[in-house]
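Saturday, quiet lab. Running sequence design on the structure tokens for the scaffold JK sent over.
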């Protein structure tokens, strides 16, 4: 402890804050608290504004209402109040540019065309709705046409395949003779031997599944296992007796 006390006493004490630094730190803390309180008050006012606006929206015949572009915190307030009020809230646009929230009544939920248009930044009005409906009809017609074309092509391929497999159809003959092409490698006579038809060996690899099943009962299986154990034990005993017999003979021969 004496050595530790000596070291601690020899160390310099941390520099003390003067009155000016203390005052500066205090002002910064107070400024931070005022900013936080101001933000809380602003959020409370915004929450009250959104709540009142959605209350009016619930009573009129509008299908949706739009809010101005806002940051993520304010949009989260809109989504929270909309969810609590039984509405549908969605956000569209680019972050920090024009991202805004749109609140719908559940009985007037947005369709696919409206969601696509708002995500593309086109907004939504009767003219845009008509334009996107026309695009959707053209897209569906194109998809139907492509589907019919692929179906007809597949049926044509099936028809040609069945015609090729029909023995009554005309025989397709090759235009070249492979024997003449590879005669310099396999010769004229070897080609006929090499082209002989290969056949499966019927006596190899074809075992009926019923022959692979163990038809024994549980009792018979246990009895066979016990018999194998007894046979193994008897063989070990015989082997030990054969090893002990020469040792006994050598011992009796060595006695005076």
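Result came back. Writing it out in full:
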């Amino acid at each position: 402890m004496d050595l530790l006390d000596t070291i601690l006493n020899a160390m310099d004490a941390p520099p003390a804050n003067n009155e000016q630094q203390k005052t500066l730190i205090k002002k910064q803390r107070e400024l931070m608290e005022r900013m936080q309180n101001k933000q809380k008050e602003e959020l409370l006012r915004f929450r009250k504004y959104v709540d009142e606006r959605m209350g009016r929206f619930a009573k009129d015949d509008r299908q949706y209402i739009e809010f101005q572009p806002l940051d993520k915190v304010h949009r989260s307030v809109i989504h929270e109040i909309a969810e609590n009020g039984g509405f549908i809230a969605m956000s569209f646009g680019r972050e920090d540019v024009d991202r805004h929230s749109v609140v719908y009544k559940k009985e007037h939920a947005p369709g696919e065309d409206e969601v696509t248009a708002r995500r593309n930044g086109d907004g939504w009005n009767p003219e845009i709705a008509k334009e996107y409906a026309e695009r959707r009809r053209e897209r569906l017609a194109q998809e139907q046409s492509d589907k019919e074309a692929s179906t007809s092509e597949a049926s044509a391929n099936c028809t040609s395949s069945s015609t090729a497999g029909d023995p009554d159809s005309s025989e397709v003959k090759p235009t070249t003779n492979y024997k003449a092409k590879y005669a310099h490698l396999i010769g004229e006579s070897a080609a006929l031997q090499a082209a002989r038809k290969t056949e499966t060996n019927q006596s190899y690899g074809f075992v009926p599944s019923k022959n692979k099943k163990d038809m024994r009962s549980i009792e018979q299986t246990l009895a066979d296992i016990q018999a194998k154990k007894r046979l193994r034990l008897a063989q070990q005993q015989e082997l030990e007796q054969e090893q002990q017999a020469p040792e006994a003979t050598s011992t009796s021969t060595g006695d005076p």
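Notes for JK: The longest strand covers residues 87-92. The chain has a mean pLDDT of 80. Ask whether to fix the surface positions before the next round.
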